[in-house]
């Protein structure tokens, strides 16, 4: 896994070898010089320019982070419209779901009740992400990537004021915050646990899985997202 320098001068995005074909297929000329050197980290502004975007959203995110450069990767997202990552199946309490996003939407109350859903959607996403990162076929790859991003801020710049950070309006970036939770735990146990103890450590991290997904009636109410 390519290592980031301790102090970054600008936001960086991770690109696995999978993205080489995307770069070539879409004719992203600004990224072609990087294509044969993947996996690696590419400046976010270069990626934005290659996709036809300006740097205003990146600059806004930097301002919100008080100038600290952030990092991100498509592997951290649950839906992939531009870059390539095969989302793994996850198993939660014996039930198998096609991916984290599938599990997340399956937790919506029936009949749908917006206030109940808003009160538990963060808990639902937290469970799905933990299973994706800790107990899926791509766990090793994801955890190596996640640890390599430490200690830099994570930021998902996209048109979503709740799960991401909107390039014009800003946002809460809840997805990134939940992934940072996992990162801090993983960095902690990797620092002091031998290779032979990793599986036990992963089990200990998620042993209280049920506590992350409280019943609708017990969940703490969460304010409606900003539009």
Task: Name some characteristics of this structure.
Tetracycline Repressor, domain 2; two-stranded antiparallel ribbon; 9 helices; globular
Describe this structure in words.
The protein has 227 residues and is mainly alpha-helical. It has a single domain, classed as Tetracycline Repressor, domain 2. 41% of the residues lie in helices and 7% in strands. It has a three-stranded mixed beta sheet. The chain has a two-stranded antiparallel sheet with strand order 4-5. α6 packs parallel to α8.
Largest sheet, strands/sense/barrel: 3 strands, mixed
Instruction: Give the total of domains.
Output: 1
* Total strands: 5
Q: What strand order characterises the main sheet?
A: 2-1-3
Low-confidence runs (pLDDT<50, min 5 residues)? 194-227
Q: If you consult CATH, what is the topology?
A: Tetracycline Repressor, domain 2
Distance N terminus to C terminus? Answer: 37 Å
Q: Mind telling me the CATH class?
A: Mainly Alpha
State the helicity in percent bands: 40-55%
CATH architecture: Orthogonal Bundle
Rg calculated over all Cα atoms: 18 Å
The total count of helices amounts to 9
The outline comes out as globular
On the 0 to 100 scale, the average pLDDT is 88
Helix/strand/pairing category: mainly alpha
Percentage of residues in DSSP E strands: 5-15%
Order of helices and strands: EHHEHHEEEHHHHH
């Amino acid at each position: 896994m390519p290592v980031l320098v301790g102090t970054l001068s600008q936001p960086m995005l991770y690109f696995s070898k999978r993205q080489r074909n995307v770069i070539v297929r879409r004719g992203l000329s600004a990224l072609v010089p990087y294509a044969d050197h993947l996996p690696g980290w590419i400046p976010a502004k270069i990626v934005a320019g290659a996709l036809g975007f300006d740097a205003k959203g990146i600059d806004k995110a930097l301002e919100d982070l008080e100038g600290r450069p952030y990092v991100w990767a498509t592997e951290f997202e649950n839906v992939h419209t531009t870059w390539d990552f095969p989302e793994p199946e996850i198993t939660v309490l014996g039930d198998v779901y096609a991916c984290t996003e599938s599990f997340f939407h399956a937790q919506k109350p029936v009949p749908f009740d917006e206030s109940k859903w808003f009160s538990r959607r963060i808990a639902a996403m937290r469970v799905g992400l933990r299973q994706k990162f800790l107990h899926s076929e791509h766990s090793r790859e994801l955890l190596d990537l996640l640890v390599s991003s430490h200690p830099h801020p994570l930021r998902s710049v996209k048109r979503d004021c709740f799960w991401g950070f909107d390039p014009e309006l800003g946002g809460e970036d809840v997805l990134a915050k939940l992934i940072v939770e996992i990162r801090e735990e993983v960095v902690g146990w990797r620092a002091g646990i031998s290779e032979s103890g990793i599986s036990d450590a992963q089990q200990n991290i998620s042993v209280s899985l049920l506590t992350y997904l409280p019943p609708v009636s017990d969940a703490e109410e969460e304010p409606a997202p900003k539009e």
